[in-house]
Protein 1
Amino acid sequence: MNHLRLPEGIALLPDPLPRLVVTVPTASGVVYLNGAHVAEWTPKGADPVLWMSAESWFEEGQPIRGGIPICLPWFGPGRNNDKSPGHGFVRLAQWNLVEAAVVDGAAHLVLALAGEEASGLPGADEDCLDFSARLIVRMGTTLEVRLEVTAGKSEYTFEEALHTYLSVGDIHRTTVEGLDGASYLDKVAGGIHTQDGPVDFTGETDRVFESTGEVAVVDTAKGRTIRISKTDSANTVVWNPWEAKAAKMPDFGDREWTSMVCVEAANALGNFITLQPGHTHTLVMTLALE
Ligand code: TA6
């Protein structure tokens, strides 16, 4: 467990896993040290913005189903379809809290992981540990998440994603705007397609867009819009498992699929990143309610 002195408004609780509980003037939230996993974010006066399955595991070695899982050093099964566990091992690692502060009513948290600290985790082979990572979270009226990856002594190649689960009132009455005209890999139907207008949801949806821009989740049922902006991210992933796939996931309630959508800032597949020794790449995603 960390031994950093914590400011008022940030507490470190041990159960069900070591978690930072944030209660500041502008927001509340939770960040697990396990995976540096931002699990909850609720701006003051609003409904929770991040979605969390009631069936999620909260056990070491198991991914948390909801919030913002960090996918690293690969996305899904990897760009060559040969990696396990899905989305890499970093979300299973115990990160360290290195900074905690409350500034202008918002919580600032920095969590860090040295690659070798992931040694022994599933998939954490020797040849993919020569990196370090930091997650920098600013939790207030908006949520800013910065994922910094730094190469160690040798060149480091990776994919990454902030696999964000968003809470919506009803997926049938939700659209994602900002991807019109973008090409995407359709992981359900297969093949490369071009988005025509907003993304709407009539079945299992799993699309990896070539898109660097801002998108908006228009949640008609809740009467709100979640704006997702990002920097240094070449892909936006949109996912809803729909009924059949949700029923097959033990950590996903059978009827929960109607209340969530994933919109993920990523660098995946052909947009993998290669860093020279000692160099750093930072992916930034910001969520804001309208
Ligand atoms: O980002 C969408 C996706 O790649 C889907 O294909 C689905 O596998 C989802 O991630 C969930 O992955 P997980 O490993 O967290 O169950």
Note: The helical segments are 242-248.
Protein 2
Amino acid sequence: MHVDVSPSNSTRVLFLAAEADPFIKVGGLGDVAGSLPRALRASQSLLDVRLVLPFHSAINRAAFAARSLGQFSVPHPTGALTAEAFELDVNGVPVYLIAGDLIPESAPVYSSNMAMDGPKYTFFSVASLELARHLNWQPDILHANDWHTALAVYQLSRLREVDPFFAQTRSVLSVHNLPFMGAGAEVSVHNFGIPFSLDKHMPEWARGFPLPLGLLTADRIVAVSPGYAQEILTPDFGCGLQNLLSTRSAALTGILNGIDTQLWNPITDPLLTTPYQSGQWNLRGENKAALQTAYHLPVDPDIPLIICIGRMDPQKGVDLALDGLRLAAGKKWQAIILGTGIPELEADARRLATDFPARVRTELRFDSRLSHQLYAGGDILLMPSRYEPCGLAQMIAMRYGCVPLARSTGGLRDTIRDADINPDGNGFLFSESTPQALEKRLSDVLTQFAIKEKWHQLQQCGMEENFSWDQSAVQYVRLYQELMEGSL
Ligand code: ADP
């Protein structure tokens, strides 16, 4: 058996996620799992945090030379399944990639087909626990993220009753997006011989869903912003789990996500036309001019350039943004929309560009390079999310001097101070999720854009914010410490 040791006084954290930058990134979870383990290790040298990911086919095997740690068994009622672990080190963080029959060679990270994702993530969750055993590396903390790995938390709660290897392991479950509970995965949960919950607080329909099972049994639940931690206790945001969550409210906290401030740094960003820092508004302007030129838009610093970056999903309020922009047609603005997602929303975005050929461009793809250039060249980030557990785009935008206009919800409300109310405001908020409300607020913002001195002050406030992982990492470290000090 492979034996792997940590210093005897270290706290061992097994951190599970479906995606992590730089291996594979689909959305914000990829940013978080790519940055938090490193930040945790940096903030507390005795934290031995190790990241576990599925070895997705989209992970570039040539770029990430991983060493095989051999095969191990994953229990299954019809006979053990085989998994293989690979190991490498990225930025000082040990990373394990798990391959196996149920992590198919050709599957995307997330598929709309739960017949594929259910077995894959059930397998991955169970295999992650077995990996620890294979490595003979007893975790002090199992830290899972979202539905994809929540089942590991549930399994742990059952195993530690009977299995000395896991008897002392505590669990943390971070919730990045409550509505995605793993509905449909209950088939594979059952097939793996994992019993559904009979807890009286668990709604009937949720008894076999991975996320609710994790929420029921995690020692600590973390929502990714204090605002979202409050919201999910209410019927509007609790997705039917508000009563279950209320029974767990003593275990629930909100810790704001951070951003990777090395990756997202306008002073050193190699993807920009011209790097710049706060105050160097002319240099920043060169990035805007480059975008206007590249997209055959009128090259004019006085026309506000609105950007939208994100998944094309009703959550993100893409429809509100598109309709709101239509309503604001009488005003002077340009817009570049970058995103992929639901085909209808993509079609609506394309239609806006067709209807406003002189001022709207859409890029319906995932393009990290372009996102950097948009944050650097855009004046206003439009982010009218219907709900927003944390949101990274608004934090990145602020770091680049692009002013967010967002709906007042969850992490958006926690990170944006409306400039009309606060002298040190860093953006703008609106409440009602209607295109009319968006248009009204956008009109105000466009007016304020013209007052250069005030606008620069807003940009400066945003650029001075500390959205690094340092602060959040300190809170996670404290949480781990509390868990280690408390009794099980
Ligand atoms: P979510 O996690 O809900 O998708 P976040 O705002 O938390 O939203 O994080 C989204 C992250 O993904 C940001 O880093 C954003 O820049 C990036 N992103 C989203 N869509 C795209 C895209 N089409 N191209 C490039 N980056 C994108």
Note: The chain has a mean pLDDT of 95.
